[in-house]
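Fill in residues.
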């Protein structure tokens, strides 16, 4: 029997940092019919806030090396300012958004990343999603808005990559819904030439991803994003797509991920 459709959308830092682009994205998100869930990043704002406070940010393979000071900043920025700004905007557009981070409701439990071979500090890898309770919240009519902050089983807060958070929530919720996962960012999709918006690669699977990586066509934050997208499609998510934030509700745009 087919399940109810659920749209899970991830929105990244470049859009969140651009007020007009964010407003237009949120209007489109609010107009999606039926159950929906938003995961947001905000890495760019966290980096500039840290710089204002005299703290340098270091990224390795798309992950922020998170010391105690950085953890305080990312928690305030992601689970505070960004999350509440988005929720308030969605509520003003009759979307019944509820702001959450991993520790709320025990929805996402993580584990501090092993410090060997590389110590990322307070960075969490997701261990468990409490999908049953979260599905209940969604079925009750709420649209969860997740900040990429988690905690471990001892209560230690951790910083988690937002693309990974979206992937784990999508896989967990696939037991209860037919999930479409859309990664929205500021490009038209995965591009053959990152400077040419007309060069969208229409489909990506494990085999051509390996080739695109080897050829240096995908780089930086795009590599973990595609790894997350490929994991989602391999583990029960029905549709996975990467597209420009303006096209969140246009299923024919962007790059489709294939198993
Ligand atoms: N082939 C590619 N096509 C599109 N973007 C690419 C490609 N290779 C690298 N990128 C970079 O990946 C970025 C998206 O990853 P990331 O910065 O982690 O996004 P976000 O913070 O929006 O999740 C793009 O802004 C772009 O600079
Ligand atoms: C561990 C880790 O790297 N966490 C990310 C969380 C934010 C994020 O993923 O934001 P974008 O989607 O805007 O890149 C970070 O602090 O940058």
């Amino acid at each position: 029997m087919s399940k109810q459709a659920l749209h899970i959308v991830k929105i990244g830092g470049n859009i969140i940092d651009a007020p007009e682009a964010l407003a237009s994205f949120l209007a489109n998100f609010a107009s999606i019919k039926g159950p929906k869930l938003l995961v947001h990043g905000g890495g760019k704002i966290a980096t500039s806030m840290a710089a204002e406070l005299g703290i340098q940010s270091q990224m390795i393979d798309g992950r922020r090396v998170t010391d105690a000071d950085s953890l305080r900043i990312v928690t305030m920025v992601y689970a505070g300012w960004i999350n509440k700004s988005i929720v308030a905007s969605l509520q003003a557009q009759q979307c019944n958004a509820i702001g959450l981070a991993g520790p709320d409701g025990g929805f996402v439990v993580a584990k501090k990343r092993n410090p060997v071979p590389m110590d990322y500090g307070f960075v969490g890898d997701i261990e468990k999603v409490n999908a049953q309770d979260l599905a209940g919240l969604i079925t009750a009519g709420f649209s969860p808005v997740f900040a990429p902050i988690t905690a471990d089983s001892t209560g230690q807060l951790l910083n988690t990559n937002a693309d990974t958070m979206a992937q784990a929530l999508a896989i967990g919720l696939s037991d209860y819904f037919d999930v479409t996962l859309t990664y929205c960012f500021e490009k038209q999709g995965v591009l053959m030439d990152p400077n040419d918006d007309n060069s969208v690669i229409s489909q990506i699977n494990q085999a051509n991803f390996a080739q695109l990586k080897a050829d240096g066509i995908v780089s930086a934050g795009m590599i973990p994003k595609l790894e997350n997208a490929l994991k989602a499609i391999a583990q029960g998510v029905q549709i996975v797509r990467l597209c420009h934030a303006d096209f969140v509700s246009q299923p024919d745009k962007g790059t489709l991920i294939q198993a």
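The chain has a mean pLDDT of 97.
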